[in-house]
Amino acid sequence: MSTTLRPAASPATTSPIPRTAARAPRTSPRRWLLVAALTALALLMVFPLYWMVVSALTPGGQSQSSEFYLWPDQPTLANFTEVFSTQPVWRWVANSLFIAVVTTAISVCVSLGAGYALAKFSFWGKGLLYTAFLITIMIPIQVTLVPSFLVVARLGLVDSPWAVILPTAFDVVGIFIARQFMLSVPNALVEAARVDGAGEFRAFFSVVLPTCGPLIGVLVILAFMARWNDFLWPMVVLQGNESLTVPVALSTLTNNPAFASPWGAVMAVATVTVLPILVVFLAFQRQFVQGIASTGIK
Fold it and tell me: Where would you find the membrane-spanning parts of this chain (predicted)?
């Protein structure tokens, strides 16, 4: 039997293997439309802040002119100079900072402890207690305004920062968010800590709390923003001009006869007092996004 030998094909005559050319991903018109819509929405949200700054740099505010403009012809700091030299603005800012920081610290601690107890403990009446917490969210503040003021007056705390701090330190929304987050923490971790001899406080601080970074960011931002912008309750219990918080003080500037046009002064104070909220949000924005996402999903 004869075997026929065939010459091997030379590399020059070998047909190349077709390859799929790498194509750059194309942006669909739908994606462009989404980007344009989000950009327009972002500009719409930022525009009030921009308008506030422009009004603060305009003599007397923009109410003095009937023309619409996006930037004053002669920007000036006269509004800042006038209001800061005639009104105790820094005192108002200090009062708001003290109330917001102390209330936020107490509220975050209470929310973490109550959320841990409602998520990891089993005791009689837990469901009823949690339901009672949620029902209080639906009660408007106007219903409890007079009883709360009578309690504060009996304690002698009227016109004191503690009259604002103590009634608002218990945040039901914060407890709800903390409970929902801690439900996602595995019970096996807590049980393992208990088996190893750790008490409840040790299990909470060593096992549960290190996983609550996103939760703490959410609670800090929500509590600080709520207390910094609170208006009705501080207006009721704070009476002296030196004891006012920023939102209440801004309402007094609109009726102050010392200013020919109060809106420039109001916008100047508002421009300064919006900075603490921006600082707190920028400091905790990553934890805020992670906490909202994990709480909503889990």
Answer: 32-53, 92-116, 128-150, 162-182, 203-226, 263-284
